[in-house]
Amino acid sequence: MPDIRNIAIVGPSLSGKTTLLEAMLYICGAIGRKGSVKEGNSVGDSAPEARQRNMSTEVSAGHATFEGIHFNFLDCPGSIEFQAEARNALIGADAAVVVYEPVVERATTLAPIFRFLEHNRIPHLVFINKMDRTTTLMRELLPAMQDVSGTPLLITQVPVRDDDHVTGYVDLISESAWHYHEGGASEAIEMPDGVMEREDEARNMMLEALADFSDDLMMQILEDEVPTQEDVVSELSGAFAEARVVPVLLGSAELENGVRRLLQELRHWAPDPERAAERRGGDGPFAAQVLKTFNTQHGGKLSLARIWRGEVKDGETVNGNRIGGMYHLQGNQNVKVDRAGAGDIIAFGRLEGARTGDTLVTGNTAPDEDAAWPRAEAPPRLYGLAIHAARREDEVKMATALHRIHEEDPSIEPEQDSDLNQLVLWGQGDMHLQTAFSKLAGRYGVEVTSGRPLVPYREAVRKPTTQHGRFKRQTGGSGMFGDVHINIRPLARGAGFEFTNSVTGGNIPRQYIPAVEAGVKEYLLQGPLGFPVVDIAVEVFDGKYHDVDSNEMAFKLAARVAMSEGMPSCSPVLLEPIMNVRLHAPNSATARVQQLVTGRRGQILGFEAREGWKEWDTVTAHMPQGETLTLISELRSLTQGVGYFDMTFDYLQELTGREADQIVEARKQHLEAA
Q1: Is residue 335 within a helix (H) or strand (E), and if so which, with residue range?
Q2: Closest CA relative to residue 626, chosen from 608, 611, 647
Q3: Strand 333-337 to strand 326-330: parallel, antiparallel, or no bridges (unpaired)?
Q4: CA dihedral angle for residue 142, residue 145, residue 150, residue 154, rounded to 10 degrees
């Protein structure tokens, strides 16, 4: 096995990541012809759901050899809704290529990517793609990108232009000029006269940035010495491997412009797998980590894993499961291998117990949490839909299919809400969930219907009352008789439920008191407004019984009668859940985010700079849960797709007026339909 480098390809949607992967594989000779995203024949985006949408919906893997280095590539989705896929894959990368279009206004979309890479100390460079079709100047683009990067951006190439067309570049390291040839290697040319001054200025900026991390280079600059090319390469590769600088390269993946130079720089700069393993900090004779799970229709389950330490052979047992095949993946094509060692990325077959993010070790047991390698932090739930199988007979099959989909993408989470009798599928946005529905239908034959989830409204009472309830039934033999007198009163918000027995003189035998409490609790599951009742106290203080006809069921039903007749006179009121919401967004959008909150009946509590995020704010607010169901869609539209939020339940608040009436009427119709 040659030396290995594991490279993740990330970037915002439509930046050209999959096209870049296709160009690199073709240049390396790993594929005979370049495919196209539009034509649906690329190595990346090979999943049916990706080809339906002409966009990446899951991680794609590819591999190739370039100048003695075996590259494993991980092509990551760009949509913010599939960010968990990208993050899980990035955990296994030695370095990342951030692909970006030369559009100043979209620089904000790089912020979440840069933040994750910086937080996890993953070395990364930027490849400015589509340079063949832009008039944007680098002196405008670089500052916009630097505004959202916490690590210094290091320009290593400047474009050579012919009018409005970029025809080549000047390499600032070697101080040489190159002319692009579409579909071929660039050609060395004389330095164009109009570029020399700009090249000299840009190179000095590059050297000064590198000198911040090198005393030797700083002394050379101060003494007006010209560093050798070898010194510059050494300092740059060292700073890159430590994730202290972000080199910026130029090109066009579609035309192969600059792609060969990108491969050469990855070969020289990317740290080796051992260094990446040291960065991650795990230990053990053999350890691998699942970066992505594929449940294929015909090949069964595949666990794409990064081997951090040791060696493994086909047929060995890891985490109690016997490996049923080992493969290098080239999109949806599998290349079988017999063994793999540290640094490689391999798909293991039939590891039924393995999930995305899990650490794999040899033997019959999985490692405990303390011994596991760190996994990517899961994103918060942002959008949910209540779902059920279109055909009742598919309910069991749907549950199995959802489990499989959750294995593939842990940020797709099904949650059974027993209180509201609904199954909610949670994800990162509507497109994220629609992709899951496509998998359900296409791979598992399960059609689902979906709708907005029910909000867990509650109701309480404002006034006390006293009520008599009697249940009596005579059927010819022994009948049923129960008679209770109860007091109903409100409790302070959050106090819950309180039941008191104040019966004296044996008017209700002690053995029937639990049945009275059970009848009260049963009624409180659905009060006069149709919702569960909270913060209420019920006292049974008197009643009657019959020696023959009284039993537990009779007193349970008598308690329900008393509650159903007494509750409407207690001035029932609707309670809506209020969430503590933290909205995270670029500070340029903070004012708009605050308007969004108040427009959704929210109360702003304040805002502050987002810790660890350059030029971002966090707005904290109280907001009704019902207003958060579609919050992410509007928040993203205000923030170029990058804003997000997290929330926790805070308290219940009374809701009256027309809105409350509409909610109660909708609940009545729902119960009648059920």
Answers
A1: strand 333-337
A2: 647
A3: antiparallel
A4: -30
For residue 47, what are the CA distances in angstroms to 54, 59, 61, 77, 438? 10, 9, 12, 12, 11
Sort strands 69-75 and 3-10 into parallel, antiparallel or unpaired. parallel
Give CA–CA dist 387/399, Å, rounded.
11
Instruction: Give the span between the Cα atoms of 469 and 455, in whole angstroms.
Output: 32
Which of 294, 314, 312 shows the shortest CA–CA distance to 302? 294
CB atoms within 10 A of CB 285: 9
* Residue 46 · residue 60 · CB < 8 Å: yes
Within 10 Å of residue 126's Cβ, how many Cβ atoms? 26
- The CA-CA-CA angle for residues 358, 359, 360, to 5°, reads 115
* Cross-strand bridge partners of residue 324: none
Please say whether the beta carbons of 627 and 601 come within 8 A. yes
Residue type for 225, please? E
Distance CA 36, CA 22 (A): 8
C-alpha–C-alpha distance, residues 282 and 657, integer Å: 58
Residue (of 460, 470, 496, 474) closest to 556 by Cα position: 470
CA–CA distance, 312 with 302 (Å, rounded to integer): 16
Token pair, residue 472, equals 């009596």
d(CA 274, CA 4): 10
Distance in angstroms (rounded) separating the CA atoms of residues 160 and 430: 43
Contact 542, 485 (CB under 8 A): yes
Nearest to 243 by CA among 265, 282, 276: 276
pLDDT tens digits for range 10-41: 999 999 999 999 999 999 999 999 988 888 89
Angle at 14 between CA 145 and CA 30, to 5 degrees: 105
Partnered with residue 613 across adjacent β-strands are none
Residue length of the chain: 674
By the 10 Å C-beta count (0-12 exposed, 13-18 middle, 19+ buried), 503 is classed as buried
Note if the pTM is more than 0.85. yes
When the pLDDT of each residue in the chain is averaged and rounded to a whole number, the result is 94
- State the Rg of the chain over Cα: 32
Residue 462 half-sphere exposure, CB side, CA atoms within 13 Å?
10
Helices (DSSP H) in 153-228: which residue ranges?
196-211, 215-222
Task: Inform me whether the pLDDT recorded for 277 exceeds 60.
Answer: yes
The set of residues, in sequence order, having a beta carbon less than 8 Å from that of 220 and lying 6+ positions away, is: 226, 227, 231
CA distance 368 to 514: 45
* Whole-number Å distance between alpha carbons of 155 and 203: 8
What is the Cα–Cα distance from 124 to 118, expressed in whole angstroms? 9
Secondary structure letter of residue 257 according to DSSP: B
User: Amino acid identity of 344?
Assistant: D
480 phi and psi angles, rounded to 5 deg: -130, 135
pLDDT digits over 376-397, tens only?
A: 999 999 999 999 999 999 999 9
393: number of CA atoms within 13 Å, CB side? 1
- Rounded CA-CA distance 238/46 in Å is 36
